[in-house]
Specification:
Blueprint: H1 10-39, H2 46-53, H3 57-63, H4 67-72, H5 76-88, H6 95-107, H7 114-126, H8 131-153, H9 162-182, H10 189-203
Length: 205
C-alpha cells in the first residue's frame, strides 16, 4: 500500500518556523499588554510576562530585550515592513502622506490585528512611565524610515538633512498628539494627528 505521507519541504518548514515565531512574539506582546493594563507598568516583571505567555524567561529575552520592548512590541520585521511601505509608495503620494499613514497605522485599531493594536494604543496613552522607552523606539523607527526615504528620494545615506528632518517632524507630530491625550487634551487622536500633519504640510513642501 503506497504511503500517503508527504515530506515537508524546506520552504514549508521555514514558513512554519516563521509562523511559530510570529505567534510567540504576539503572545508575549499581548501578555505584557494584559498585565500592564491590569496592574500598571511598574508592578509587572519580565518573569510574569513570560509565564502569562507560556514561555520561559530565556525565550522571552530571545524576542524582546526588556519589558518595555515587550509592551511597545515593535520588532525588526515590523520596522522593515514600515520602511518598505515608505520606499515603495506610489510616486503621487508625498512623503508626509505616506509617513502619516504608516505612523498612524501603528496605533490604529482598524489594522489587521485589531485586538493587539487597540490594547497597545490604550497602554501607550495611559502609561507615562513608558515615555523613555518610547523615545528609544522612536529613534529606531526614525533611523529605519530615514534610510527608506533617502532611498526613495535617490539620496546617498546622510548626504542631505532633508529626509531625516521630514521623518523626525512626522514622528514628533504623532508623539505630540499622544502626549496631548495623556495630559488630558481634547479631541480624538486620529483627528489630532490629521491636524498636526496639516500643520506640517503647510510648512514642509
Amino acid at each position: 500500500m503506497p504511503s500517503t505521507y508527504a515530506p515537508v519541504s524546506a520552504d514549508e518548514s521555514c514558513g512554519l518556523r516563521e509562523r511559530k515565531k510570529r505567534e510567540t512574539r504576539r503572545a508575549i506582546n499581548l501578555a505584557a499588554l494584559d498585565l500592564v493594563e491590569d496592574r500598571g507598568f511598574v508592578a509587572v516583571t519580565t518573569e510574569e510576562i513570560a509565564s502569562r505567555a507560556g514561555v520561559s524567561a530565556r525565550t522571552f529575552f530571545n524576542y524582546f530585550p526588556s519589558k518595555e520592548a515587550a509592551v511597545i512590541g515593535t520588532t525588526a520585521d515590523e520596522l522593515e515592513a514600515y520602511a518598505q511601505q515608505l520606499e515603495t509608495a506610489e510616486p503621487d503620494e508625498g512623503p508626509l502622506q505616506v509617513l502619516r499613514r504608516i505612523l498612524a497605522g501603528m496605533l490604529a485599531p482598524a489594522s489587521i490585528d485589531r485586538q493587539l493594536r487597540a490594547k497597545r494604543r490604550r497602554i501607550l496613552l495611559g502609561e507615562p512611565a513608558l515615555a523613555p522607552a518610547l523615545v528609544g523606539n522612536n529613534i529606531r523607527i526614525e533611523n529605519a524610515l530615514t534610510a527608506a526615504l533617502e532611498r526613495r528620494l535617490g539620496l546617498a545615506p546622510g548626504a542631505s538633512i532633508e529626509a531625516r528632518v521630514t521623518v523626525a517632524a512626522a514622528i514628533s507630530a504623532v508623539r505630540a498628539c499622544i502626549e496631548h491625550q495623556q495630559n488630558g487634551g481634547g479631541g480624538r487622536l486620529e483627528r489630532n494627528i490629521d491636524a498636526a500633519f496639516e500643520q506640517l504640510a503647510a510648512g514642509v513642501r
